[in-house]
Amino acid sequence: MGKLDGKVAIVTGSTSGMGRETAYLFAKEGAKVVVTGRNEARAKAVVEKIKADGGEAIYVIADTTDLKSPQKIFDATMEAYGTVDILMNNAGMLSLAQFATCTADEFLTAINVNVTSAMLLSQLVAPIMKEKGNCHIINVASIVGWAAHWGFVAYVTSKHAMVGLTKAMANELAPEIHVNGICPGAIRTAMLDSVGGEDAFGPMIARTALKRVGEGSEIASVALFLATNDSSFVDGQLIRVDGGVDV
Ligand SMILES: NC(=O)c1ccc[n+]([C@@H]2O[C@H](COP(=O)([O-])OP(=O)(O)OC[C@H]3O[C@@H](n4cnc5c(N)ncnc54)[C@H](OP(=O)(O)O)[C@@H]3O)[C@@H](O)[C@H]2O)c1
């Protein structure tokens, strides 16, 4: 018996990285999974693997720079499965713009992709989850939602906002919906590769107790904890999964 038998889980940004690992784990634990992202070939491959392994999933192609995309994800979920129990707001983009030169467009794009779309999708699923009870929303922030670490103003601001969103939602949606967040440190994904991979993270690794980067599967296992009653007295929390940065 799986820990998520009979559950429906939306995992945004599950065409790669930690979202994909979470989609695989949730499906292995019995959830019907809604995979989202922009890249159709990768979305299809994730769904095919889940099905080949005996699970159930659909994919929805949705670019979250478009604030109508949460509605598209919600509608596809309802059409396929008629309900939703778990939402992991994981889709995110890195913005390397520095404070002095960041344009309004760059700033708002990062905010919309990393936070606004998560808020809007949560608003859509919340009434169903409130009625059902025992539901879970998991927001993926970052250790830069905790402290800046770098001067990437739009990214850092968006991840701090994700922390605030998690706390505000937890207060408003309890007790039927538990809302928690994960603050990953450096995790080996396409996003990490886009800024030079593990080699570029030497200084960060030096400040990390475990002296290594993390794997997407190490985020997925914490997401599973937050998606089940194993975390029944955990609410409004941001769990750092960073190998012990600056401890
Ligand atoms: N890797 C790290 O070290 C690290 C650390 C802290 C926090 N995070 C956060 O973890 C989350 C997952 O990132 P990752 O590291 O797993 O990176 P990743 O492998 O690049 O995955 C990012 C996911 O988000 C989706 N996505 C990005 N922009 C999108 C958009 N405009 N519309 C829809 N989907 C979009 C991507 O889908 P498509 O490519 O198909 O569009 C992909 O599935 C992000 O929120 C990121 O900020 C990562």
Topology, element by element:
Elements: E1 8-11, H1 17-28, E2 32-37, H2 40-52, E3 56-61, H3 69-81, E4 86-89, H4 104-132, E5 135-140, H5 153-173, E6 177-184, E7 187-188, H6 190-193, H7 202-206, E8 214-215, H8 216-226, E9 238-241
Parallel strand pairs: 1-2, 1-4, 2-3, 4-5, 5-6, 6-9, 7-8
NADP nicotinamide-adenine-dinucleotide phosphate (NAP) binds next to helix 1 and helix 6.
User: What integer value in Å does the Rg equal?
Assistant: 17 Å
Can you tell me the CATH architecture? 3-Layer(aba) Sandwich
With strands numbered from the N-terminus, the spatial order across the biggest sheet is: 3-2-1-4-5-6-9
How many strand units?
A: 9
Low-pLDDT runs: none
Give the helix/strand class: alpha/beta
What is the name of the CATH superfamily? NAD(P)-binding Rossmann-like Domain
Summary tags:
17% strand, 247 residues, Rossmann fold, alpha/beta, two-stranded parallel sheet
